[in-house]
Amino acid sequence: METSKIKTLEEFKHFASYHFKELKPVENIDAAHILEIRVSGYSDMIRLACNLVKMCAYVTQSDGPYITDLVKDRHIDVCSVLELALQLIPHEEIEVLDEIHQLLLDDVSSSMKESK
Length: 116
Fold this sequence. Notes:
Radius of gyration: 24 Å
Number of strands: 2
Helix content: 55-70%
Strand order of the largest sheet: 1-2
Distance between the termini: 79 Å
Order of helices and strands: HEEHHHH
Structural class: mainly alpha
Strand content: 5-15%
């Protein structure tokens, strides 16, 4: 349906339902939405988070007047970029790494005891 043919609110709702698909509302939380970011895996996700943090570090530590003006004039909102980076860090999955690490340590420890 072309926008020039929309005459009623119902037609607009029908038209809009096919176009507003990026943000998905979060249930039980007002004014919160989910935006899907596609990555090829955990390593890609972590690399993206690291690059965002590095970019923020570069922008805030740079002495160049152009970069400083971008940050001061809020053309680059460093806090929002850092918040995105934090959301990309797989906190729950990191616990799995701790468990795997502990299993390996236990295995090495038991192997050393058996060899004595």
